[in-house]
Amino acid sequence: MAAFATFLAMKLLVTYFQQTSSRHPAIQWSTDNWIVVVLIGVILTSLICIVDYFRSTKTFDKLQPFYAQKAVSSSYSVRETILNFPKDDREDKRSKLIRSWRDEKRKLAPTLLHSPNLKEQLANLEPGVYLQIVQDPSLQRKLNLMNPTVHALNVLQLFTAVLTGLCTLFVTGLCYYVFKADPNATQVSVLKNALSVVFFAVTFFAFFPILYAQQRAEIEYLVGTGYTILPQVFSGIFAVGLLVALISLEPVKGHLSDVIISRLIPILLVGAGFGFNLMESQPLRQLIGVESNWGIQIILALCFIVIWVVIILHIWPWKSNLKVMPITTDVQTKIESNSQ
Predict the structure, then answer these.
(1) pTM
(2) Which of 24, 40, 95, 111 is at 20 to 30 A from 6, Cα to Cα?
(3) How far apart are CA 287 and CA 51, in angstroms?
(4) Using CA atoms, how far apart are residues 172 and 186, in angstroms rounded to an integer?
(5) DSSP per-residue letters across 171-182
(6) Are the C-beta atoms of residues 288 and 155 closer than 8 Å to each other?
(7) From residue 102, how far is each of 62, 105, 111, 166 by CA, in Å?
(8) 153-205 pLDDT, tens digit each
(9) Rounded CA gap, 132 and 222, in Å?
(10) Nearest to 335 by CA among 22, 10, 28, 5
């Protein structure tokens, strides 16, 4: 959904400015050379994927089946061990256990690298030590614990997500520049609707840090921190910053239904997600965490499908108000004069 909204907004903006007489250098270069911008995004995305490949651990579903099954069973065992501690000193004992497991991992790592019976040796390890090993990004690669096909698909998935995020940044910056150059740009229907489409793109992109943060919180409770490059933090700051920038551009006007669909629902969804993450809320754990079940997941999927369909119908380009129309002389003059 984020990709759809991002590239729809890019199409609207590029097509619009290529058909108008705007000659401002920044707008002209961006719209005439948008392919170059995307290629620069591909280069940056590749660098980010390389860093993630070497420095971020992969979740259990990326492991080979034997190691993944053992990791799941070990996680249940470790969680049960931690929950059996008295609540008053549970955190202290959990931290001590994790430190002892990490020390054991460091001692075992050299022997595991040259072990002729790796599976058998790993299968006999204590659950906490096993989790430390399979969640270490360096050992995941050196011990060949990853499923090659799933790992390759994961890299492709990350590449697509990061590239979409950089394209979202590009169209958001273009919208911000145009609307800051002259507030009267809101009188042009295609620009106003492009802004709404970009808002939806950023909103859906913001769900990644929310979901990933919850996933990492569940795993880090068992293995500790320090195994990722904190993508949820950087992407969360990125998404919130773009949302604030977009909200500052124009007050929402129009019918109440348009205000609810285009601003209120996205803000409430993103705000609730970040709020639950910050408070380590039990409801979020029950919705998307370890305490969730198939019934809850099906209901959530149906809710998001309904929201997705409503938003698609709201921004679909066949609507007459999304057609590219010539910019008025007054607005064009003000944009160029303010830019100069």
Answers:
(1) 0.70
(2) 24
(3) 31
(4) 15
(5) HHHHHHHHHHH-
(6) no
(7) 22, 5, 15, 36
(8) 888 988 998 898 888 888 888 888 877 776 676 677 777 777 778 887 888 77
(9) 9
(10) 22
- Tell the residue number behind the tokens 């080979």, with chain if given: 64
Other CB atoms closer than 10 Å to residue 32's CB: what's the count? 12
CB atoms within 10 A of CB 324: 18
Cα separation, 205 vs 213, whole angstroms: 14
DSSP class of residue 38?
A: H
CA distance 64 to 70: 10
pLDDT tens, residue by residue, 51-105: 888 878 888 888 899 999 998 899 889 888 888 888 888 888 888 888 898 899 8
Burial classification of residue 132, based on how many CB atoms lie within 10 Å of its CB (0-12 exposed, 13-18 middle, 19 or more buried): buried
Burial of residue 263 (CB within 10 Å: 0-12, 13-18, 19+) is middle
d(CA 54, CA 229): 10
Counted residue by residue, the chain has a size of: 340
Amino acid at 13: L
CB 197 within 8 A of CB 12: yes
